């Protein structure tokens, strides 16, 4: 009888790599050494599990094997005194006492990967590598950057952590709100790139979406009393619930108004809406909770656009930005008409984004100003990097192309 193959090890790798690296990082105090030990453990699993079977606690087996491998390496490479101290440390599986709101190795690793001293791109790459277990090649492919660039970011981030002596710990409770925002921002960035890829042929990168949802679920499990954590999870689940309806069978983008709601994942909608209700009961609204509430309104047909505008008013007060103001203008157009929305759009400036000219083009189209709409679609096409979005804009551009020379 054939034992478990590489697929079984791969499943454990995806679910347990981050936890194992986190535990070994605490024990060793060195991210590179922890990664090396965990990789050795998984290589051993590939050799032994097909013959011996998957152990009852695969994650525990990986951690124990990685710890033993690290002990062996320390004994080979260290001086006698250092070897003795390191071996004692590695043989002690209990976490050291420490100050902090949360005592969990995965959270320590997340906060270390997302430390504000690291560049944003490095935080994302390091989080996906160490916490998510994605390979350097997978991360590079997801963000359409050279593998060497991604590898360099990860190496430099690890060096920064080491050289700057960035502590491997969860921030003190008083510092947690400020630092938590950086962690949530990384998870949100991973999801937004997966939800609507900034470039490439596909609209959606399902692997990034799945990884972001997994990280958000993990955060919600580890920090169940943080409303913004629940808000982010709700926001991602409600976004994921529509994935099957966002792209037609031929690969074309389908805007929200044209989606077949029968294709939405009802379980994800219900879970997301329940999380939004839990957040509302906390009465401590933050940006992710408000965004999730907006998506929850959209999940109940027909959407109450006045409520959407009110929520965007709140979001704009919390996080004033041109992107939020642009989304608010779209909602205002649904309540007060496209001319009202256009007046708001024309007061905004997003010079490097295709979103503003795309919204402006749609409002001009609805107002019957076809030539102006065509010009705005041209500007959006010049800025859009995703092939599916470009195809959608090109179809809309063709619809407003004057066939008889008529102007606005």
TrEMBL record:
One annotated GO biological process: DNA-templated transcription initiation
Recite the UniProt keywords alphabetically.
Answer: Sigma factor, Transcription, Transcription regulation
Signal peptide residues on this chain, from the entry's feature table: none
Segments forming domain RNA polymerase sigma-70 region: 13-78
Which Pfam family name is an example for this entry? Answer: Sigma70_r4_2
Per its record, what are the GO molecular function terms? Answer: DNA binding; sigma factor activity
Q: Where is the DUF6596 domain?
A: 179-279
- Indicate the segments forming the RNA polymerase sigma factor 70 region 4 type domain, all copies: 110-161
Query: Which InterPro entries does its entry note?
Result: DUF6596, RNA_pol_sigma-70_dom, RNA_pol_sigma70_r2, RNA_pol_sigma70_r4_t2, RNA_pol_sigma_r2, RNA_pol_sigma_r3/r4-like, TPR-like_helical_dom_sf, WH-like_DNA-bd_sf
Q: Which family does it belong to?
A: Belongs to the sigma-70 factor family. ECF subfamily.
Q: What is this protein called?
A: RNA polymerase sigma-70 factor, ECF subfamily
Source species, please?
Answer: Geodermatophilus telluris
